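Put briefly, the fold is written as integer tokens. The lines below illustrate.
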Amino acid sequence: MSPVLVASDLDRTLIYSSAALALTMPDARAPRLLCVEVHESRPLSYMTETAAGLLTDLGDRAVFVPTTTRTRKQYQRINLPGPTPAYAICANGGHLLVDGVTDLDWHAAVLARLADECAPLAEVREHLAATADPAWVRKHRVAEDLFAYLVVERELLPEEWVKELAVWAENRGWTVSLQGRKIYAVPKPLTKSAAVREVARRTGAALTLAAGDSLLDADLLLAADRGWRPGHGELADSGWTAPGIGALPERGVAAGERILREFLKATKEA
């Protein structure tokens, strides 16, 4: 039988920082949490213990592929329950990891597409440096020499600036995504979906399932046979949906648990 491929975003889809947990129930009814990421000796990301069990079951039944905008270094801090994934997608598709090691041919092909199809990273960095106000920018960052992002004070961030940046970037073949306290500027040819299609080709998967919460996950969801988005995030805030996409009502860490239940159900039905 052909395997089922499950490609899922991580942050605010399967794993959650303490600020994103959305524990709105009474304290006594809050779910038990499992820490799945430590950074600088501090716990950083969580999932429910129930979700951890579901992910372990899923890893035994399907080809589970973590699919993230994180850099390789940031991804490797995460300690997910269940079997170690044979494939992982980092840097929004810029790096395809096979047994934890970058596939150099894939990365070279990505770099060639970026050189042909969009403005260079240096131009985007210069624009961000020239227009972002230090009053609300905390950090300028470059990820894997592929894309840029800013860490901002969200309450001080002017909405008009984000809109103007999006228009400027669009005209140069780039996409802008606002996720929590981070503003990403990512080349349009740099996509999670392209890397997932490559994993599907290599594994012979006949069915692809996906989940994600942000604008950078839209292409991933559209490329899958079935997909789900949580009740929070850029996609939910804009009311985004498409055929074959389940718009879930759950928000926060409860959404991660629901997404895993949907993955498992669809995998068992395949």
Remarks:
- The two ends are 10 Å apart (CA to CA).
- The chain has a mean pLDDT of 97.
- Residues 154 and 180 are 7 Å apart (CA to CA).
